[in-house]
Amino acid sequence: MPILDRILESTRRRVAESKQRVSPEALRRNFGARVPLDLAAALSGPGPMVVAEVKRASPSRGGLAPGLDAGACAFEYQDHGAAAISVLTEPEFFSGALADLDAARAAVTIPILRKDFIIDEYQLLEARAHGADAVLLMLSILDDAALRSLSAAARELGLSVLAEVRDQPELERALAAGARLIGINNRDLKTLRVDSATALRLAPAAKAAGAVVVGESGVDSAAALAALCAGGCDAALVGSHLTASGRPGAALAKLLGRAVGTRVKICGVTRAQDAGTASRLGAWAVGLVFVPGSPRVLSLAAARRAAQGVGPGVLKVGVFADQPESEILRAVSECGLDLIQLHGAESAPLVAALGAGRCVKAWNIGGPEALDAAAACPARWLLADRPKGVPGEPALNWGLAARLAARRPRILLAGGLTPLNVEAAMERVRPWGVDVAGGVERSPGVKDAAALGAFFAGVRRADEVAGLR
Questions:
Q1: Which domain holds residue 191?
Q2: 215 CB-near residues (< 8 Å, 6+ apart)
Q3: Which residue among 211, 238, 255 closes a domain?
Q4: Same-domain check for residues 53 and 197
Q5: Residue whose C-alpha is closest to residue 287's, from 373, 208, 360, 378
Q6: What CA–CA distance (Å, rounded) separates 395 from 247?
Q7: 205/323 Cα distance (integer angstroms)
Q8: Cβ-proximal residues to 464 (8 Å cutoff; 6+ apart), any chain
Q9: What is the pLDDT of residues 319-343, one digit of tens each?
Q10: pLDDT (tens digit, 9 = 90+) per residue, 52-90?
Q11: Which residues are designated catalytic?
Q12: First vs last Cα of the chain: how many Å apart?
């Protein structure tokens, strides 16, 4: 049986089962007061636009990013310039879920497209109930009556419709049905082959009819995106290229010509001159330690003095471990901290109280059993660290860290990094950022300028090898 027929057979079963579990009325009760965003308006601005897709797998390539956290991925996309988010919710062939829509909606403020094989109005109710702003309607699986009926029902729910076409007859059908947001898929869903010229052939006619045009499939470089937009597309929908990279946000930034390399956090800074050196070398953040008993601990006054060397745009991170919320908030206020790093057994409610969006939660990765709990942590950033007090464990297990980084894109890699091993660590783990303290010091809290320079040089070389610069 052709792959598309298998997907549709599975979809019909899934919809029937869903109707038995959740009634249309129950879905409508979950709509809430939120008004869906206009996808066409979001894609009508200047410059190349990207609808970045949360995608774990595909029939053509198999697993791309198993275990990927949909909310974290969506946030990364928004943070790196996506105009909108596409979330695949088909479970059997694409490893998606409606829960991914919920997670993405909680993470971003830009429009979200539900991408699935929509054949029933019930699926529109699901999309609206789970926070989508738009739905994909594929002309390859819908006749004209179904297209018009589903389009009208979507509009009644406030949902935008991206009508997907593959050839000239489908484009004419879409325009005749009133579609003004057209997706042109370069992939033939029957053979799974990609012809990048498809969008270039059809886009001029769609634009001439007044449609906003989205090219789909086959965009894997800034040059390919530029060619698509030069050929008449307003935006591109990109999924596999981004999630398969292991660094979806950085891959999107590079696609948009805004390449962002691996972030570097220099932790345990005690002197303004070291903060200044780290800033000049390109640090993303500087860590100031407030943990009693640490060899790098600072008083509030000493932290303020050290922070004077932090350059513009470099974040100040306060490091705490099992300290009272009031104590943490006092340091944040008096030292002008941008982020809070938690190194103890802090609970999820405390993370939420402090603000998950400004928290870095350190996690000691001692074995595979730690990965699920770490991935579920609500903090926006996770810091993967080595297990504490384990003899013979001088560094973090990079294999475990890589598995965590594949699930949670915003991972800071720590645990024994030095100028000598940072390139190998980055190649293995592909982290969002790296965190170093003792590996660039002459003594606890006193950084070595030469070691700092060598560390940053190693990060740049690893980024170049990975194609991030």
A1: 3-255
A2: 183, 184, 186, 199, 203, 228, 233, 235, 236, 237
A3: 255
A4: yes
A5: 360
A6: 23
A7: 63
A8: none
A9: 999 999 999 999 999 999 999 999 9
A10: 999 999 988 889 999 899 998 998 899 888 999 999 999
A11: 53, 55, 115, 164, 185, 216-217
A12: 44
